[in-house]
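Your task
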Amino acid sequence: MVFSSRAYVTMAVAVAAGFWVLFNQLDGLLFFSPVLAFYIPSDAVSNFVLSNITSGLLGMVVAMNVYVFRNSAVRFHGSFLSGSTMSVISSACVGCSSSGFFLVSVFGGLGVATSNIMSQYQLPLRLVSVALLLWALYSVNKRLDQSCSIRPA
């Protein structure tokens, strides 16, 4: 129902592509300077696969949430974007990128601890993010199915 419209398919693809570029740049797999380069070392294959899955699921969840938001009488729901927001937070590798240095310089010791935890537990955090996105996809799909069903009087 949601993806029968070109607008929502385009939105899902654009969001997925944007987050794919963001995740791969944060992981140090995609470089824009001095030339465009993409490199996957052998120890980063599992994280690359999980970031691809996360990006695709994130595109679908955001497009479905926008559809629900536009077509719902109730404007805000308790779990509107919580699954997708949490997955983005847990999926980006803070310790593997320049954002880790930003955390260290801004937050000091707390930034060092956060960067260290995020880099050590990157794979489990990405698995959690995929699970959260699957839960968000299920809950949005369930909400759409319930709104389409006819309830007996």
In short: Strands lie at 30-31, 37-38.
